[in-house]
Amino acid sequence: MDVMELGAIGELVGGVAVIATLVYLAAQIRQNTRMMQTTSGQAMSEQVERFTEWLVENEQARELWALAVGWGRDHPGSLGNPAGHSTDALSRFHLVMYRAANASFSQYELWRAGHLGSPQFDQLKSLVHIYSTTPAAIDWWENQAPSLFDVDFLRFVRATRKEYDRREGA
Question: Comparing 47 with 32, which gets the higher pLDDT?
């Protein structure tokens, strides 16, 4: 074998090595993406669980949440009808809504960065729907949230609300 033949064999071996390396790297990236989505999904579940535990353990928060999500604007006890509530109750309601919205915003940012898979994204949309469709919550999203969250997230919330309204025939 002369030098030219050895060079051709070396190029062939080098090409095969490059392809093998690329296949290995693609598999590693795919595995890392699945791991990130799993980790993000677990973090999302833990965040929802912490919020739920907080509501269960905190009687005032639970009462405010019931006022926010349980009654329509016309109900005399509704937070959508603020005349019947103290400034303190309304302030606490705003904080409860902020806590729920901020958890959703964190999850939205994970989705936007590509770290949430479809099941987690569907769960996020379901939670946003719960947090944004009652009269008191709608009022909060329209009057308080714009100063707290970015425009893309607010568009996402509105689009999710419209999507669920279409599904439910509203």
Answer: 32
